[in-house]
Amino acid sequence: MLLTFVVLLVAQTTRAIVAPYWAESLSDNLSPLGVWIDGLFAGAGVVIAPLAVVVGAVIITRIITRYTLSPVRSFVPMMLFAIGVSGVVFPVGSPALMLSLLMVVHSTNLMIMSFKRTERFSEVMRASFWVGLATLIVPDMVYVLILLPFQWLLWQRTSREMVAGLILALLPLFPASFCWWVEGKEPLWLLGEWCATLTPLHIPNFEVIFESVGGVWSVALGGLLILLTLTSTVVFIMGFNSMRLRARKGHIFFAVLYLVGLFMLLCGSRPAVALPIMGYAMVPLINTLFVRRQGVLSAVIYIVMALLALVVALVPLF
């Protein structure tokens, strides 16, 4: 499993050097802070992209093993993260978007850490702050910000913790608004972007999505991952009563986060923003499928996923 992760990482890094993608289509989705970050690290996406994949894969694997979301320790989550986030949709052209996704991943880790502990202000406040900061960089992340009250209730936080978390989630907005006002923008520019992002549900332009995610091979891999996510959800429901409480709540959260990513896609968010959220949320769910349904079929599915991810990474090089 670890070898597969390393091979995919090398393939994606090679693709980032030879055939980067989505770099030119993200500027409209970034705040002034996000544009500044991309400008600061211009040309460094080749280095930052694989580093971000490694960091994200380590954190999500740690979440799954430390909080017993899976009874078996393995490197499968790292491989799934590499495939779902890097193999299909990770935009190597935008360090700002990579950074905002890692903030969401880290926020999840902190929020789950607070479960079954009394008055965990530190974890709740830091988790909320990171989501607020991610939204400050990429306004489309407002959907994840809206999910915070659900997380507070799911992880049984107190009303005082919720108020503190809300304050920290909105805190980055105030100094940023002042800086934008100094530069001549409206002070509450981000609020307008949030409102523009929360558009009514509509049928997306699948032709644009098809071109954005890299053609038929990426679509085939994405379709397989969606099918596996749905199957994993059924497996989770069937084994719901046999899971520990933290594991059940963790799977519920990631299933809801996956639906949020899907909703973002259907509401018009660019695939570069919505699909990484879906790719991250699917990791614990599909990992549960591999753990609970071991056998020849699971091995074949694993091999097919890895090969498709390699094809997605290598085809643009030829």
Overview of the molecule:
It is built from 16 helices and no strands. The chain is mostly helical and 318 residues long. The protein has one domain (2-317). Helix 1 (2-18) runs parallel beside helix 16, helix 5 (95-113) packs antiparallel against helix 6 and helix 13 (216-238) runs antiparallel to helix 16. The longest helix is centred in the last third of the chain and has 23 residues, at 216-238. The chain starts with a helix and ends with a helix.
Helix count, DSSP H or I runs of 4 or more residues: 16
Structural class label: mainly alpha
Mean pLDDT figure: 77
User: What is the number of domains?
Assistant: 1
The backbone outline, from C-alpha atoms, is globular
Low-pLDDT residue intervals, each spanning 5 or more residues: none
Report the C-alpha radius of gyration, rounded.
19 Å
